[in-house]
Amino acid sequence: MTSQFGNSYTSIQCFDGTNMVFDEYMGYLFVHVGYEDIACLKRMLCVCICIVQHLCGPDVSDLKHNLRQSSLLSHLLDTWSQLADNDQACLVEAVEQLTVNPEVNATVIKSLREAANKLKSMVDYSRSHALIFVENKFLSLYSSRDAEDLAAADILFLNILTESFRRPPPPPPPPVPEPDSDEGDSSDEYYSPPSSPSPSVPP
């Protein structure tokens, strides 16, 4: 909008109640159309771009060719929408943290440390994070040495990702059968030969 029309509008409202919001990321224009209010559509669009950043990084074009990535993106957006409808914390883009007694917390941290060390030996990557969620609530986090701190958006994305595994995506629609090239055109007319007259019976 800014480069082509010389303005910086980020939304359009139509007389029939249709609203459109748009934003740009890595040269790609993201558009969300719906009948909800502008603020709701903008929140959904921001969540979409945040998920795209975590899934694709700067290579947004991967969504055009990678069906698995685009299907995962759609499933994550559906999961976020379901969580936002039923969980106030997700609606305000927050993650609720569970409080447990010190003994349980120490046991959890020990398990996370062992998991992070095992992962380090498997992938040969020294920096890692290990987290535990109880349903969609955050329980504990262990970060290896020199690992960068996770941002709030990172933890929220991981929460949506783990919750999506508990909510299997709907099955894909059945493929549309292709017409058989051997069969004739349905518009062709077919004629059957007239039936032979029945022989007359002599009197």
Task: Summarize this structure briefly.
By secondary structure, the protein is α+β, with helices and mostly antiparallel strands.
Distance between the termini: 95 Å
What composes the largest sheet? 3 strands, antiparallel
Q: Which class of secondary structure composition applies to the elements?
A: alpha+beta
Query: Total number of β-strand segments?
Result: 5
Basic shape: globular
Structure description:
- The chain is α+β, with helices and mostly antiparallel strands and 203 residues long.
- The chain contains seven helices and five strands, in the order H-E-E-E-H-H-H-H-H-E-E-H.
- The strands form two sheets. The protein has a three-stranded antiparallel beta sheet, with helices on one face. A two-stranded antiparallel ribbon has the order 4-5.
- A hairpin with a 2-residue loop joins strand 2 and strand 3 (28-34).
- It is globular, with a radius of gyration of 29 Å.
- The N and C termini lie far apart (95 Å).
- The model is unreliable at 186-203 (pLDDT under 50).
- GO terms for molecular function: guanyl-nucleotide exchange factor activity.
- InterPro entries: FUZ/MON1/HPS1_longin_1, FUZ/MON1/HPS1_longin_2, HPS1.
- Residues 179-188 have a biased composition (Acidic residues).
SSE topology:
Blueprint: H1 2-5, E1 11-13, E2 19-25, E3 28-34, H2 38-56, H3 62-65, H4 67-86, H5 88-91, H6 102-123, E4 129-134, E5 137-143, H7 152-166
Antiparallel strand pairs: 1-2, 2-3, 4-5
Notable traits:
203 residues, alpha+beta, three-stranded antiparallel beta sheet, two-stranded antiparallel sheet, 7 helices, 5 strands, 43% helix, globular, disordered C terminus, guanyl-nucleotide exchange factor activity, FUZ/MON1/HPS1_longin_2
